[in-house]
């Protein structure tokens, strides 16, 4: 992994790489066999480059798999507390269902909808451990009853400079955190995704995926524990049956398909930071002034369009969360 950004063809690139060049470069690297070695090389363009859907396996019918109505309907009360002005148009459900980052399945965001179709998300349980009173396995149903579901429209900003606007369904993560009853000396919480070797076949990384938050971040009302989107249960490719949605942070902090939660007394390691600590720091709040090594973070492309819009500090949510970082 340390050799990741030392390739000579990267050094010659400017920090702002035009999106149109990503695919060519991706193919170039694949031809060189570099993708298989470094893995994370793909992460820098994992969002938004090959616009064509890829049905990489038999049995992937777009009109069936990308139809949001195939998922069970959920009832949720709208919570508009965090609506940002001016409102952005919602990303279409088919765009949100067909363009995903879920590296366990593949590094190609346009193939996840197909590769994840047999990922089993029912029944589901979450293991809780560490510095908290609750210990052991808890079924999803018991977790879902902790607070009534709300619909919240959030902007999502991928570190690779694409964005979407999605009506998520879930409740504030803090209800779950309080139920777990962390001990007084707990400072952080770590989340680990499920790993199912029969469907998650990307061998370029060591799974499972893991992420973490400070407890004060996790207790912020904006942090959502999501179970649905667009009025329906989450699709496998979007992180069914339980994921985080942290709209002020880069998308990789919003871990999908959560299988375990652990309370800790120190900052945990995180999946991407363990691969590159400078590029993917623990906090990873959206920050347009801090460029990625290969592109600017000043603007973002809205998924399903060619429009680019300015990126805002904390993805626009600063009025609610900036105080968390004032120290
Ligand atoms: N969670 C897991 N387990 N594996 C992943 O690869 N990718 C992250 C995040 N959560 C990822 C994950 C990244 S980089 C992004 S941008 C979002 O999921 C994408 O969410 P979406 O596919 O619902 O748009």
TrEMBL record:
<dbReference type="Pfam" id="PF00174">
    <property type="entry name" value="Oxidored_molyb"/>
</dbReference>
<dbReference type="InterPro" id="IPR000572">
    <property type="entry name" value="OxRdtase_Mopterin-bd_dom"/>
</dbReference>
<protein>
    <submittedName>
        <fullName>Protein-methionine-sulfoxide reductase catalytic subunit MsrP</fullName>
        <ecNumber>1.8.5.-</ecNumber>
    </submittedName>
</protein>
<dbReference type="GO" id="GO:0016491">
    <property type="term" value="F:oxidoreductase activity"/>
</dbReference>
<keyword id="KW-0560">Oxidoreductase</keyword>
<dbReference type="InterPro" id="IPR036374">
    <property type="entry name" value="OxRdtase_Mopterin-bd_sf"/>
</dbReference>
<feature type="domain" description="Oxidoreductase molybdopterin-binding">
    <location>
        <begin position="120"/>
        <end position="272"/>
    </location>
</feature>
